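thought: user wants a sequence for this fold. calling inverse folding tool.
action: design(structure=
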């Protein structure tokens, strides 16, 4: 996440940058900062916390002569929220300033080699290497230094740079992270999202993936990586400001569903290096301790609990370790049997859910090692844990969790691979093969979402039904539980989710002619069993809506409707099979006219018991 903005032109820019950042605050608010060229020097103002803190810092410090500058609002990934870690970052001379959104995967090696060459770092961030690389490559041509820096770094990112020797130039590049140019009269903006400059100009120029750009008061140029200027037209946007904040999507939830490929890519970035193995910098629980654990105990609530349930299958399968799972509000009032060789994993998007925190604290008191999987750097969960795996889903605004769930499942996969590595339950080659497949999934998801339209049609057929049953087996069980939770929380339709094999012990009595039954029937070792359960449903004349693997043409014979998803190996399949269920819930809720971003009676973070 993170939001970045730049301005070059004839107007005083400090306030323009500040107002632009206000519009980008939804992308993160751990810290914020601006750098402006004033009196021939680059002046940097940064503050921890949201934009109100930056506003206080800027009071009486507006650098009214500045006509060139950068701004940044941060969602912390590398380095805790602090003034030193806030952007913009500078080089050793203070002549160069940069802002970055994204992750530099090879920053550790780059930092070591730059330090060996005498560069002095002042932050813990990955982004600061970009300022020092530009310094290293700078020979009077800022764009060329940006281009050479791009060649040095790997990962996914968008960055902008200014130099005190170039008062009318911003140069930068992007790879996979968003960056757009706003072209005005005698001025230009660059930003992570259009709302940042929409009140100033509606003329937009797109910077494509793996492209460079330069903006000056005279206009904008976009270039390929050899600096050939590309023929890029400007387009006029007609969005209102509210739509713009949602990136053109009608709701935050839909936007977040479509951000899932990035959420997954960010969460695994740098943790599965091509050289092999699994790297978890914040694990902090020693490999010797992890090698000896005899039980993993997962505690969480709601959607996070469903991610934990995926963990049960994956951890047993890959790390050959016993797994128990409980809802945090139950766990905290039981007498769980824990020991120093139990690893308790608390999963919480917010890191602030009262029941999950209480369960984690109790586990620690009982002598277990505690690991937090959370999306929020510095949250309470991180302080109540011995080790952390951060999900990197970015800020999630929709109350119904979507992109944070995908990131949680990915974090679980990382944990399982890490334990398999230290416990020797998978070979290096097996870990490498799973890692390679995991890295392909963001692209599979992107393609799936681009061509997805089936769920809307299916939603239209069923949205007036009074009840939905969801069935799944194996890793399909947590997926169906999550699908049912999504549907009930945003459409208010009663749902029941069950292990498919358990249906005949009770829930089958609910079925009637035409009752919609959503079945997760992706390929896997229990597929044939799921088909038998589908037959049982059909015998009661219920309507089967199946989630199935692309290429499985046979499923049509057993189903009224099918939502096909790309093929993956079984343990990775929840990363994809949950997405059609999120979309189904979404479309049904929209058709019913519900407020999907703020469903009734719910809160994004549940800090009470
Ligand atoms: C999911 O859509 C919900 N909003 C809810 O179940 C949520 O997952 C739960 O409250 C746990 O929150 P946490 O991940 O922040 O701990």
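)
observation: tool returned 609 residues.
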């Amino acid at each position: 996440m993170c939001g970045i903005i730049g301005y070059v032109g004839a107007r005083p820019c400090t306030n323009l940058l500040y107002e632009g950042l206000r519009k980008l605050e939804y992308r993160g608010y751990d810290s914020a900062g601006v750098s402006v060229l004033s009196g021939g020097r680059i002046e940097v103002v940064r503050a921890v916390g949201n934009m109100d803190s930056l506003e206080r810092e800027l009071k009486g410090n507006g650098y009214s002569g500045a006509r060139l500058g950068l701004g940044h609002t941060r969602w912390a990934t590398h380095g805790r929220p602090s003034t030193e870690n806030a952007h913009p970052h500078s080089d050793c001379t203070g002549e160069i300033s940069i802002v970055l959104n994204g992750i530099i995967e090879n920053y550790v090696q780059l930092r070591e080699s730059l330090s060996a060459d005498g560069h002095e770092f002042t932050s813990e961030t990955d982004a600061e290497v970009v300022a020092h690389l530009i310094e290293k490559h700078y020979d009077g041509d800022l764009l060329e230094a940006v281009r050479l820096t791009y060649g040095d770094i790997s990962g996914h990112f968008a960055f902008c740079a200014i130099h005190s020797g170039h008062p009318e130039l911003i140069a930068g590049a992007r790879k996979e992270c968003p960056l757009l140019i706003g072209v005005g009269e005698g001025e230009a903006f660059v930003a992570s999202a259009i709302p940042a400059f929409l009140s100033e100009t509606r003329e937009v120029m797109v910077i494509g993936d793996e492209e460079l750009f330069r903006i000056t008061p005279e206009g904008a140029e976009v270039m390929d990586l050899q600096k050939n200027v590309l023929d890029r037209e400007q387009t006029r946007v007609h969005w209102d400001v509210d739509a713009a904040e949602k990136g053109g999507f009608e709701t935050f939830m839909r936007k977040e569903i479509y951000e899932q490929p990035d959420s997954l890519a960010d969460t695994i970035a740098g943790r599965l290096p091509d050289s092999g193995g699994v790297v978890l910098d914040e694990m902090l629980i020693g490999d010797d301790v992890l090698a000896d654990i005899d039980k993993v105990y997962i505690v969480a609530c709601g959607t996070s609990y469903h991610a934990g349930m995926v963990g049960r299958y994956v951890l047993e399968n890959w790390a050959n370790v016993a797994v128990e799972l409980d809802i945090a509000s139950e766990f905290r009032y039981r007498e769980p049997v824990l020991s120093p060789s139990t690893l308790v994993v608390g999963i919480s998007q917010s890191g602030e859910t009262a029941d999950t925190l209480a369960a984690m604290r109790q586990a620690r008191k009982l002598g277990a090692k505690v690991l937090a999987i959370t999306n929020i750097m510095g949250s309470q969960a991180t302080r109540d844990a011995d080790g952390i795996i951060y999900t990197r889903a970015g800020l999630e605004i929709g109350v119904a969790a979507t992109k944070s769930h995908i990131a949680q499942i990915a974090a679980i996969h990382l944990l399982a691979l890490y334990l398999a590595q230290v416990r020797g339950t998978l070979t290096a080659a097996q870990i490498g093969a799973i890692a390679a497949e995991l890295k392909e999934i963001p692209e599979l998801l992107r393609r799936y979402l681009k061509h997805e339209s089936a769920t809307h049609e299916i939603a239209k057929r069923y949205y007036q039904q009074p009840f939905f049953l969801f069935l799944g087996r194996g890793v399909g069980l947590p997926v169906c539980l999550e699908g049912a939770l999504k549907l009930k929380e945003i459409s208010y339709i009663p749902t029941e989710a069950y292990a498919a094999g358990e249906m005949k012990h009770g829930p089958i009595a609910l079925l009637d002619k035409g009752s919609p039954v959503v079945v997760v029937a992706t390929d896997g070792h229990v597929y044939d069993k799921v088909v038998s359960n589908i037959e049982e449903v059909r015998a009661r004349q219920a309507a089967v809506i199946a989630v199935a693997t692309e290429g499985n043409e046979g499923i049509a014979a057993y189903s009224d409707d099918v939502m096909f998803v790309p093929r993956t190996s079984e343990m990775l399949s929840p990363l994809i099979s949950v997405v059609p269920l999120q979309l189904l819930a979404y479309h049904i809720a929209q058709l019913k006219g519900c407020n999907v971003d703020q469903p009734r009676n719910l809160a994004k973070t549940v800090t009470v018991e």
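thought: summarizing for user.
answer: Here is the designed sequence. Residues 3-245 form a domain with the Glutamine Phosphoribosylpyrophosphate, subunit 1, domain 1 fold (CATH 3.60.20.10).
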